[in-house]
Predict the 3D structure of the following.
Amino acid sequence: MIEIRDVNFHYAGLKQNGLYNINLTIPDGECILLCGASGCGKTTLTRLINGLIPHFFKGKLSGSVMVNSRAIGEQELYDLAQLVGSVFQNPRSQFFSVDTDGEVVFGPENIGLSTQEILKRKESVVTELKLSELMKRSLFDLSGGEKQKIACGSVAALLPEIIILDEPSSNLDWDSIKDLHDIMKHWKSQGKTIIISEHRLWYLKDIIDRAVYMENGRIVKEWKQSEFEHLSEEELAFYELRPVNLEEHYIREFGENAGSEKERTRLSPSTDNLSEEYVHLKDFFFTYTPKNYLFFKKKITPADENICTIRIPSLNVKKEEVIGIIGKNGSGKSTFLRCLCGLEKTCIGYVETDGSSYKGKKLTKICYMVMQDVNHQLFTDSVLSEVLLSMDKPDEKRAEEILKSLDLLEYKDKHPMALSGGQKQRVAIASALAAKAEILLFDEPTSGLDYRHMKEVSQLLKGLATDGRTIFVSTHDPELLAGCCDRIIQITNGRAREIS
């Protein structure tokens, strides 16, 4: 049992993002959903339970936190790891190995289990979580969603009694979310206690026993599963929570099997007679396997195509539109965006727009990308400086207007790395808005964002298109697709198909 009594906590050096008068009891075997806006305290509450507070994150803590009748501060982290397993929002932060097999067995090896028991647990986890296709691979070659699956496997291999998941679906495709749903039901059937911090609700409605709503570091509302499942869209909107049923509709419409075969194989319009209203992508071929001779070829043969991770000979998109890029984890969505913005040096693709042609480094002059892991592109010591860095000529007034539009102005003097995951994402988007690129690329821009900020990002993307920019957005978020995308392009095994 988990018992939290009269807990108050403030991070050292921060005036906000704390917890206030938290009282919560979680019986053994219960599945709890923690929901609420980004920065409301969900992640901080999970850190109390897994011992990262006070052992790792320092601050002023009062009250009592008991796990299995023992105070959390009296238990060492290495002992807690066998009792409480945690899957973080950014799985990279919990990896210790360089390959998938080593990561799954790291925990059992670290606590000194026998080789026989380690291999038994590995086989069980790989089967239960459907990880067989990810084994014997480098962690550096995995997509964000694939890394999330491996993180779940490494935690499950320790057989913890309590499992904490922080935004576990944020980087997963829809089929993988269904797999996650099934494994969580399996954990629940085993009697495990599950605590989930999450913005997406549709896949959890038949798993959770209780939903706990947080606001400004406080627990302000609780619902039983039967009550939560029947909340109206109006009630959910009042609490700024994502709808429970909306995503299921768009999964059927935009999922991997969406549309008829005729619709799925629809070709981009011919370049003949195309007006200046289009952006033309040509010869986007790329492979992670070193094939330098591809870069010098004038014509790619079918044999060359077969070795390529990305193989898009032609794609034409209309300017001033928002183009949604969908596909399974590992299908090539992020790689395609990296090629389009010139980050993959050996990609031979080029872009034609307004009578000019761009390839290689020249693509960076017209393209700007917001990465899936925003920690890779946060460089300065304040949010305001981060936005100014993207401007050709620093304009503090305009930078503050952008921050205000993203509800970030109050954090302008904060260090970006001190913000929550969703807030960091918005800082990266603010930097994209500050750049004057014609083509803006967003890789999972609503990953980890709450309902209100997802809607704001949707409106911003549409506004950018209205202002004359062409937007590519790779996403697993059906609500974002429905809210802002003019057309949907599906990436399957590196090939692009327009489905809507």
Observations:
- The chain is about 35% helix and 25% strand.
